[in-house]
Design goal:
Layout: H1 11-20, H2 23-31, H3 40-65, H4 72-91
Length: 92
């Protein structure tokens, strides 16, 4: 389903897009070096950066796979879970 109409999604392309879109989470980890843990600011910043990473990854995946908008929600859900997991690893 996510391989596109022509089956043109390969593993290395998918991993490259997910890794490229991980930049906001890397920025979060750099910020966490200087901000004390457990503050509301940290969770708000993490949520903002997760949404940013999800938006970028979803846009790139939809353009790469060429499925149109019918599977966008599925891609958003998967990307959101991945980036939320990594941001929780950074926070805690």
């Amino acid at each position: 389903m996510l391989a596109g109409r022509n089956g043109n999604l390969e593993l290395h392309r998918c991993a490259s897009v997910v890794g490229y879109s991980m930049l906001p989470v890397v920025i979060l980890s750099a910020i966490m070096l200087f901000v004390p843990q457990g503050r509301t600011l940290v969770f708000g910043l993490a949520a903002l950066l997760v949404l940013w990473a999800t938006r970028v990854c979803t846009g790139l995946m939809v353009a790469l796979v060429d499925v149109g908008d019918e599977h966008r929600a599925l891609i958003v859900y998967a990307c959101f879970l991945v980036y939320t997991l990594f941001s929780f690893l950074v926070i805690f």
